[in-house]
Amino acid sequence: MLVNRQKTVHPLLTLQPQELTITSDIIRQTYPGKDIVFRIIAIKEPRRSLVVAFLEAERSSASLPHVPRCTYVSYQFKGQPEAFEDIADLGTRKVIFHKELPKGVHPPAGTDDMLAVQQLVLEDELVKAEIARLKIPEGAKVVPEAWPYGKDTSEADPKQYQVWFFLGSLDQKNRAHPSSNHFVHPLDFSAVVDDVTKKVVKIDRLPMGDGLYSQSGDDEVYQPQPDAEYASELQPSLRQDVKPIIISQPEGVSFTVEDDQVISWQKWKFHMDFNWREGVVLRDVCYDGRPVFYRLALAEMTVPYADPRPPFHRKSAYDLGEGGVGNTANNLALGCDCLGAIRYFDRWVNDSQGRPEIRENCICMHEVDAGVGWKHTNYRNMRAEVTRSRELVIQTIMTISNYEYILIWTFDTAAAIHYEIRATGIMSVVPMRQGVEHDIDYGIMVAPGVMAPSHQHIFCLRMDPAIDGCNSSTIAYNESIAKPVTKNRNPYGVAYGLESHEIHKSGHLDLDPSRNRIVKFVNKEKVNKVTGKNPGYAVHVSATQLQLSHATSTHASRAEFADHHFYFTKQSEHELYPAGDYPWQSVGGGGVRTWAGRNEKLGSEGVAWVNFGFTHNPRPEDWPVMPCEVFRVAIKPSHFFERNPALDMPASRQSVNKSTLVPKGNAKEVSCCGQKGD
């Protein structure tokens, strides 16, 4: 079926407000009289073959084929534990798929759920009894923090929340500040709340010593800790020698944003989508008219904690699916408002007084000067040729209760794509008895009575290649191998060679720095005229430490992606999330490890899952707020061009850069734009 170009909705367009309304109306009409609690409404990923046909027709200005526009819905009936998922066709306005989720499979929670739980626990008699036991100073404010409940058995549990408790500052000035840090005052108990009844079902006393079962006793009271504030207004003093750095683009930006969320910058062109779970999704990524990737997204993350003492052994902030773009605790979900402080995307702007404030549900996109792009000086005549590298930055920030993740897609002028993660915010801490030496090697004391456990942040990128076309991209890996010493080929023992191995079937692969192992996406039907090699893009990622939780642990069974650097599976629009569709209290078995185990032939339908991250062994310098920890993945062209694609960048000019040479022996203060006061 062909449709009119002017009337069709682009299949890569983000969910529109009217489509959300239509979807909710369809479900409500299906269940008249029911009080429906919607958990997820999102665009159902369209079939790739249909989208590829649409894109090819669009590029050739041919008639556009019809791609059904469908939405995915997850919902419950208020007060009932059962959960359902439907697929609605927006064209026919009918439900075309329906199922009830199995017992123990839970949809994510939203902001309203988390805020409601945090309010109700303070009125619960069990919680009030714990607060009374602690003999907290009068006027102090107890601050609850709801996390998804940590799974530690294979049983099908009801959906629950684990609520941790903190105390606001006892100092009147600090307490009045909007950024006062309550995380420095953890209390010694936690509450477990049932999702359906919204009742506290049990109190967990927290361990206060290094023993597995060193939980606080009935006679223990609150031991005050000193404040540790991060807000600039609450610091004893601030540096006075920080001069402004002002970056401007007087002629405006070099990128454009079209109505269908198509971004054009330099020779790059792509669709920028965002959804509740993955955040920013890049689709139909092309360079100079040549397709490179069909789909790129951060698909999952896990933050397993190393504290073995119950109930902390359940603590694992992971999986982008428990709540969306940011759900802490057991599963982090990139995409949706889960905890009270989580936002889809943040962007700094200035308020009327010139102070930074946050705009919710925004994507920050800007250009940056990235330093020298390429340079060479002819030493015979000292003539230098140099260009500046420029980058297009697409940035989102997730606030996940105590932590912040700054997630950045970057395009550069040398035809490379980068994915950068910056971790900052406040470490998740637990209480410990004061005045006692604690024998622990899974964390450090950051303040009297406050311990920061060791943990990991492991991320997973899903890469769906389209090297010069979606139907001819295959996956391989290269290794740099030392050649044996031979009389005729390598008599001096200096030779090494590059070996390439195609990934034929689904499975996994670990990086090996000793072999410089690099995964590549290549087009086997084309050849670089200069090198004779297949054109492609290579993934340059450090071989970071994988998940340290034992293979028998629930951390390992749930975070199916975190035990190998790469997984390879056959492309499927139904398999987008490597820890499974519903990670909240899941036991695993429905994610990328399972899919890769099918031993399916990949051919031109292979998808790569790239896993990397940080092992965060806390240090005092991370307290009370952590300096950004930065990790970057580079996706670089390899035999895709016949020469440096950035040769046509304009030369760097002093008329623009305006750098200033400080005269020898002249201590007068200068700036990049001339002398002070110019």
From TrEMBL:
**Cofactor binding, per record:** Contains 1 topaquinone per subunit.
Task: List cofactor names only.
Answer: Cu cation
Residues modified to 2',4',5'-topaquinone: Y403
The record's section on Gene3D superfamilies has: 3.10.450.40, Copper amine oxidase, catalytic domain
- Gene Ontology BP terms: amine metabolic process
Q: Which Pfam families match?
A: Cu_amine_oxid
- Locate the Copper amine oxidase catalytic domain: which residues? 246-647
Q: Where is the active site?
A: D319, Y403
InterPro entries per the UniProt record, alphabetical: Cu_Am_ox_TPQ-bd, Cu_amine_oxidase, Cu_amine_oxidase_C, Cu_amine_oxidase_C_sf, Cu_amine_oxidase_N-reg
Entry comment on modification after translation:
Topaquinone (TPQ) is generated by copper-dependent autoxidation of a specific tyrosyl residue.
PROSITE patterns to which the protein is assigned, alphabetical: COPPER_AMINE_OXID_1 (PS01164)
Q: Which GO terms describe its molecular function?
A: copper ion binding; primary methylamine oxidase activity; quinone binding
Which UniProt key words apply to this protein?
Copper, Metal-binding, Oxidoreductase, TPQ
Q: What is its EC number?
A: 1.4.3.-
Q: Tell me the PANTHER family matching this sequence.
A: AMINE OXIDASE, COPPER AMINE OXIDASE
Q: Which family does it belong to?
A: Belongs to the copper/topaquinone oxidase family.
Mind telling me what this protein is named? Amine oxidase
Q: Whose protein is this, by species? A: Hyaloscypha bicolor E
